[in-house]
Amino acid sequence: MRTLIISGGEIEKAFGGMVLKEEKWDYVIGVDGGVKFCYQEGILPNRIVGDFDTLEEEILKWYREHTQVEIRKFNPIKDATDTQIAVELALQIGSKEIVILGGTGTRLDHVLGNIQTLYLALERGVDCQILDRHNRIRLIQDRYIIRRAKQYGTYFSLIPLTTEVKGVTLLGAKYPLHRHDFTVLGTGSLGVSNEIVEEEVEIRIESGVMILIESRD
């Protein structure tokens, strides 16, 4: 099952519309402020969740009165962001792939929190990514391949999520590595802005979790 989560960050209208029209989604979850995008674009989500502190009441009222979409409202005083709640829901219904639109924007605290939320899917073996017009963000461990024909933009960056990421090997990259150890405090920007020079890049990780960001400049 492929699930699209439409969250309340920044979504460029043309890009968001393209993702909705050109990709096939089995399930769509509208999240708080992201429901406004759904409303404006005529999207009928399968589920709507959030505390709705950033959504106009009249939009929520329209979905209540004119659709049978299940709406679940949460108390704003809670231990998880609305996006995390949506990811947990997507996992509960058996999603094998999750894409989050509106997971980036001006609220960097939410962006970082959303990146950490990706780990909930990683530990379940589910591919989960944050997507916007400029970036595709996911967490990786063990072994991962980026194929040139399917890469998102020109550059890719690796940033440690866990305190230590040991034995990182990069094959097929402009800046290769052989069993290099990354640490959150001591690595600096070593893994930022690499490029693919062969048909694919193979990333091997002996232990730990990396943030992989593919970027369109």
Account of the protein in words:
This protein has two domains: 132 residues, 3-Layer(aba) Sandwich (Rossmann fold); 76 residues, Rossmann fold, CATH 3.40.50. The protein is α/β, with parallel strands linked by helices and 217 residues long. The two termini are 31 Å apart. The chain is elongated and about 60 Å long. 24% of the residues lie in helices and 34% in strands. The mean pLDDT is 94. The strands form two sheets. A ten-stranded mixed β-sheet has the order 4-3-2-1-5-6-7-14-9-12. It has five helices and 14 strands. A hairpin with a 3-residue loop joins strand 6 and strand 7. Helix 4 runs parallel beside helix 5.
Layout: helices, strands, pairs:
Blueprint: E1 2-6, H1 13-22, E2 27-31, H2 34-40, E3 47-50, H3 57-66, E4 70-73, H4 82-92, E5 97-101, H5 108-122, E6 127-131, E7 135-140, E8 143-147, E9 155-160, E10 164-171, E11 177-183, E12 194-195, E13 200-204, E14 210-215
Parallel strand pairs: 1-2, 1-5, 2-3, 3-4, 5-6
Antiparallel strand pairs: 6-7, 7-14, 8-13, 9-12, 9-14, 10-11, 10-13
Summarize the structure.
By secondary structure, the protein is of the alpha/beta class.
Features:
4-stranded antiparallel beta sheet, Rossmann fold, 24% helix, 14 strands, alpha/beta, 217 residues
Mean pLDDT comes to: 94
Number of helices: 5
CATH class of the largest domain: Alpha Beta
Estimate the helix proportion, in percent. 10-25%
The whole-angstrom Rg is 18 Å
The parts where pLDDT drops under 50 for at least 5 residues are none
CATH H-level homologous superfamily name of the largest domain:
Thiamin pyrophosphokinase, catalytic domain
CATH fold assignment of the largest domain: Rossmann fold
* Broad shape: elongated
Name the strands of the widest sheet in spatial order. Answer: 4-3-2-1-5-6-7-14-9-12
Q: How many structural domains does the protein architecture include?
A: 2
How much of the polypeptide forms β-strand, as a percent range? 25-35%
Report the order of strands and helices: EHEHEHEHEHEEEEEEEEE
Main β-sheet description: 10 strands, mixed
CATH architecture of the largest domain: 3-Layer(aba) Sandwich
Class from helix and strand fractions: alpha/beta
Please report the total strand number as a whole number: 14
Q: How far apart are the first and last residues' alpha carbons, in Å?
A: 31 Å
